[in-house]
Give the backbone structure.
Amino acid sequence: MSAHFHQLADAVLAGTPATPEDALAVLRADDAELMSVVAAAARLRRAHFGNAVKVNYLVNLKSGLCQENCNYCSQALGSSAPILKYSWLSEAEALAQAGAGLGGGASRVCLVASGRGPSTRDIDKVVDVVGALKREHPGVEVCACLGLLKEGQAERLKDAGVDAYNHNINTAESHHDAIVQTHTYADRVDTVEKAKGAGISPCSGLIAGLGETDEQLVEALFALRELDSDSIPVNFLMPFDGTPFENTWELSPTRCVKILAMARFVCPDREIRIAGGREMHLRSLQSVALHVANSIFLGDYLTSEGQAAEADLEMIRDSGFVVQGSAEDLAQRAADPVIRRRGAGTDLLPNA
Ligand code: SF4
């Protein structure tokens, strides 16, 4: 059976997409086969991303106080989880928070606000923060995550310099209505399409451990492939007390690694990010998962604490990876091709 996963990697590397049956076989691999699954998926990871780990940093611009009822969310209507609740951070606070993440090695800042979707004034605020962030940190990638978008809002974010927009489909269409009733799966897809339509890189992913079946996890991943999501955050449910999912523990570290490996086989050249629940669910297999996924969040999540940023960076180094964009990463890349501006077709002498 071990050979099967390498044959699958061979086929995917040769351009044959993984099928739902392939994905299920990865998800249902026996734990005794785990390292074979990882080794095969790691070939795809290294083919597309080498040994770099993209580091992202979350800034929660507005926390809690949401009117939507996403059952998994500590910020939802009806949640009594004792989280921090605040309305919009000032621009100075947002910049200070983002600066800390960038100083820690992050290359992308994810600006997040709770709520169904932004008002025009909310977009104004985000536009100002993005402008200031880009002036202070030229080269930073900015992702916005503000909920459902209305007509014209994606274009305003694009004009402000937003590089990516995150809106997770979260789960399979066939399971969506069991976990949220205040908006539809189609609403979510519509926002991802609006971001794409405005020329913003789509970031959309899922949450595992919501009572979905194996087939529904596969369904969600193939929907993300169909949506052409550039980056795919894979969250593992953190069952906050005070939410409908409190005390829901469906995941094991080995299952989480297999879910990430399945994502890699289905979407081999996409950024697969180990997102919320990394420490809680992967536990001592976090560094193994880096051989499959190529992206993490540094430090804390939106409403819960992650391990210290220094521990994240140490794990990356200890596992033989480098932070994307770091001096180590840049040093190991070959120089970019230099376009010829001399010799034939120019007034300048050739270099012979
Ligand atoms: S996921 Fe977003 S929309 Fe849903 S309850 Fe949480 S903050 Fe609100």
The first strand starts at residue 52 and ends at 62. The mean pLDDT is 95.
